[in-house]
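ARCHIVE CARD
Drawer: 12
Card no.: 0347
Subject: one protein chain, sequence and derived structure
Cross-reference: see card 0346
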Amino acid sequence: MRDHEPHTGAAGHRLSTKETAELLGVKPETVYAYVSRGQLSSRRVPGGRGSTFDAKEVEALARRSRRDSGGSPGGGGELSVRTRITLIDTDRYYFRGVDATELAARHSYEEVAEWLWTGQLRRGAAFTAPEAAVTAARRAVDSLPEHTAPTDRLRVAAIAAAAADPLRFDLSEEAVLGTARILIPTLVAALPPALYDHRDSGPLAHRLWARLTGRPADEPSLRVLDTALALLADHDLAASTLAVRVAASARAHAYAAVSAGLGVIEGPLHGAASGLAHKLLLEVLDQGDAAPVIADELRAGRRVPGLGHRLYPGEDPRARALFALLEDIPRAAPAIAAARDIVATAARHTPLHANVDLALAVFTASSGMPATAGETVFAVARTAGWIAHALEEYGERPLRMRPSGYYVGPRPPQPLPE
């Protein structure tokens, strides 16, 4: 039997040296090094020169290697990344070891962002954008078509702000922190104001409010918005955050890394999910009953937006925190009742809890905001987490996030097409 051929013995499935090396992402000689260190056991092929290895033992070593190295051994397989930023555990999540919902309840979005970036709490932290960055971003955004989505505006604003910063390629921690403190308020300032008497100073939530609705702000609503920003600042390696880390791994500057994240959140399964929940909520409010609306969703084979989260077996802690604050806003009562009707009606089909998208939808719908407002809140909020992950990735080996493709096409050489 040749060494690359697998062998199945009585003890279970056996792998050849070549298969073992491929699974572990190492060279064949490294496999034998593992044997000499006692990390793997081998068995000689009867009548042959090769060895075989127990498949379960190899898989266990591969899992240990991924866990210990902070990634898959050869860049393939399941990707895991060591991080000190966010931990999601059952029905709670933590920012640098601190309960995120408690942090958001007691501190502003800016203070939570500083905690994510540095592990230090800067009380009274405030972000201010220089006039040059804001002017460049606004000019670029104002040139877009009127129907342009907010996420597109934010992405263009980030690119324009980068072009106005000649030192953007400085990836030192202090330089990136400076970029972060400028970029976030620039993104907000670049959005067209919905309220004539808008602010470009004060807490970020106050400035963002005037870009989302023409209604005057009140303290309970501003508190919900500020808390939502803080709660959404990070959520481990979501798809957009992974894109940011890939960009940072290639040593893209912070503006470009954030732009990569903004490009990903437009998907309906990520940042845009709150917009779908917003529209569903308005339908329920219009009809006065969730049953026919949910029935239409199920009949069309669509997943009911605003319900369930694959990382939380129970209730989404972010939704729980926001719903508690929304109870203090009288005008939100009809939307809250509609959300509860959605949850109760859908539970007859599949028992799922409300997630943060439904909570955001209640807030945006009851505040006179468009369906895209939740996506805007998500994008601005998550920029803080993206910067935190970019900073962390800049401290790692460059280009480490380069997975190997598992080619399944026709084996070469193939004849040239005619």
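Annotation on reverse: Residues 373-394 form the longest helix (22 residues). The two ends are 40 Å apart (CA to CA).
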